[in-house]
Amino acid sequence: MPDRAKILTEMSDRSREVFRSVVEGYLATGEPVGSRTLTRSLSEQISAATIRNVMQDLEYLGLLGSPHVSAGRVPTQQGLRLFVDGFMEMGRVDAADRERIDASLESEDQDVGALLDHVSSALSILTRGASIVLSPKHEQAAIRHIEFVSLSADRALVVLVFSDGQVENRLFTPPPGQTPSSMREAANFLNAMAEGRTLAELRLRIRDEITLRRQEIDSLSRELVESGLAVWQNAGLSSERLIVHGRSNLLEGAAGEDVDRIRSLFDDLERKRDIAEFLELAEDGDGVRIFIGSENKLFSLSGSSLVVSPYMNAERKIIGAVGVIGPTRLNYGRVVPIVDYTAQLVGRMISDRGRS
């Protein structure tokens, strides 16, 4: 397809108005837009035959398509991208939507995971799409407290409390011979140096400390500490959590192959196979990014669009992402500001909890 910037420059005012009207009509109804419909909505009186000629030119450029021989036109994926980049007027988050998002983060008694779950639910309801929230990467969150709990001879629990309020419970297999006393010693040893450090920083500190004090630390406690470190480094126990709400919004009105593709998308997300990639989608620069259809492989099979924005901590490091998945005829002008506002709000919440 020719360069989009060049197409925008070379399009006549009439072509621009016809193109905009077709796309806006399609986004509003999901139906093809015909020439007779446009004769009633364009600013100048143009015959249906003239409009058809303009639509044929736009189809030749790859911006419009015709699902049936006698039907009107719908925007192609390239046409939607051109519209989003060059024609779309961004709305503002209205008061009711802002109030709903604010309310999802009002409770101070819940941990971050629970709050983000509320945010994801609110996003899904407001946008009528499927919402995705990637919770903070706790490699970058400071630790407040660590505790080991013995469950059986070969199972134990490590409880991690982070400065942002998040609590994680992770199962692991302790070294043989552990006792409640040795677990308390290990926890005391870790807590003495954990506060204010991230997991990555704590690992480095503990390795140095074990090397220096290897003879001073009880052997069983040392093995437990090292076992705990192994648990934290295990990629299969990623501290990232993908929160998904509203899959039914995408399945409503879909049929046949569309349903299968959408289910396949959520199967992939549930397996968390693409969590790292999801965050990477948001990391290339600040602000909201829009992926339409096959522009990203994660959504190419489902034919869905993604609006995603990163959120940051107090140090301006990207620690998670907020997004909405919807059909390609998503109301981008409304959804983009909602996602942007939500990401900024979540970032402030995470930063405030990190300072408390």
Description:
The chain is α+β, with helices and mostly antiparallel strands and 356 residues long. It has 3 domains: 4-86, Arc Repressor Mutant, subunit A; 95-137 and 240-355, Beta-Lactamase, CATH 3.30.450.40; 143-237, Enolase-like, N-terminal domain (Enolase-like, domain 1). The chain has 15 helices and 10 strands. The strands form 3 sheets. A 5-stranded antiparallel β-sheet has the order 7-3-10-9-8, sandwiched between helices. The model is unreliable at 233-239 (pLDDT under 50). Residues 115-336 form the Heat-inducible transcription repressor HrcA C-terminal domain.
Give a short overview:
This protein is α+β, with helices and mostly antiparallel strands and 356 residues long.
List the main descriptive attributes of the protein structure presented here.
356 residues, alpha+beta, Arc Repressor Mutant, subunit A, Beta-Lactamase, Enolase-like, domain 1, 3 domains, five-stranded antiparallel β-sheet, three-stranded antiparallel β-sheet, WHTH_transcript_rep_HrcA_IDD, transcription regulation, Heat-inducible transcription repressor HrcA, WH_DNA-bd_sf, HrcA_C
